[in-house]
Design a protein that fits this description.
2 copies of one chain form a homodimer.
Chain A (H helix, E strand, L loop, with lengths): L10 E5 L8 H13 L4 E4 L5 H14 L4 E3 L4 H10 L3 E11 H13 L5 E5 L6 H6 L2 E4 L7 H13 L14 E4 L8 E4 L3
Parallel strand pairs in A: 1-2, 1-5, 2-3, 4-5, 4-6
Antiparallel strand pairs in A: 7-8
Chain lengths: 192, 192
């Protein structure tokens, strides 16, 4: 990967333990959520990330933004580099402290102190050193569910994407429309 | 499926267009998110739902709750039955009205008026009649991302699962613990 991406600023997702084939769709969803909820890019360890990089390039072309995807790098390299730039590392895990208890502190450091967040999402087994290297281990509920869901709920609290409007350089935008018969889901896409 | 589940009360997830094999993991994540974020059960169309039902039974056994999974039923049957019981149908789609604009009305009808919500999540192509049969078409951002993420963010607003504590009949519970050296992710599971 191009390690210049690891600036310690902004929001970057680190996807651990990707297994080619088996995890392709899950990891693609992780990247799409990263993009839709306001992150700058994603790093996928244990993969060259070709599939996801290509999908996200297509999505950027239509829907805007500059979300990047990189692979072929070790998790420890990414985390060390991020921390060396004074970035903060947040590991999302059901075994962490609750999001409710940590979100305002993390949000303050991100928004006011302008410290970047590297948000780590794993699959089933996350090695112990990831917990130790992270500044925060944060649980989005203490129940087993989905790294995609955890990332979405965490980012939603940090970036408020529900309030956002059209992105720069987007070709398409959704115009939701209320219609006769109550709220029928008629919609338009409009080319700029 | 056992249609007596469709009471028009509580929260039920309806997963559309499941493709056996290809969608197995995504649909399992949908069910796990439904459970972790407080829904009562999930209906999977176009599948007998055996895989998901078995996974969720195991998760219930360890982590508590009574989340159920049913399959072998048509979407229109589920929606019609739900509406006949005065339940409300919410279709999550990037082409809908924004969550920000709809959540308080839906939340009011669910919490105060005690109308149940059937939350519909599709895969890529959701047929037009689903939009027409739904009471609300709700967009969790107007960007393409993930039905798992959309469901999680929607339910998080409705059920506030981040505030919840141990479930009845759970065998395991996470005890997050702050440790020396800042917030190191040491944790315990404890058997009751």
């Amino acid at each position: 990967m191009n390690e210049d991406r690891l600036t310690g600023r902004g929001l970057v997702v680190l996807r651990l333990n990707h297994r080619n084939g088996r995890d392709d769709r899950i990891t693609t969803h992780v990247c799409l959520v990263g993009r839709a909820f306001g992150a700058d890019g994603a790093v996928i360890t244990d993969s060259d990330a070709t599939t996801q990089a290509s999908t996200l390039r297509k999505v950027n072309a239509q829907w805007g933004g500059r979300f990047w995807v990189e692979g072929s790098v070790r998790a420890t390299t990414v985390i060390s580099k991020w921390k060396s730039k004074r970035g903060i590392v947040v590991n999302l895990s059901m075994y962490g402290e609750s999001l409710q208890d940590t979100v305002s502190e993390i949000s303050y450091r991100y928004r006011i102190m302008e410290r970047g967040l590297l948000i780590v999402v794993g699959s089933s087994k996350v090695p112990g050193y990831i917990y130790k290297m992270s500044d925060y281990n944060v649980a989005v509920t203490h129940e087993p569910h989905s790294e995609i869901a955890a990332l979405a709920v965490f980012l939603e609290k940090i970036t408020k994407p529900l309030l956002s409007t059209r992105r720069e350089n987007a070709e398409l935008k959704v115009f939701p429309r209320l219609c006769n018969k109550g709220r029928v889901g008629v919609y338009e896409k409009e080319v700029q």
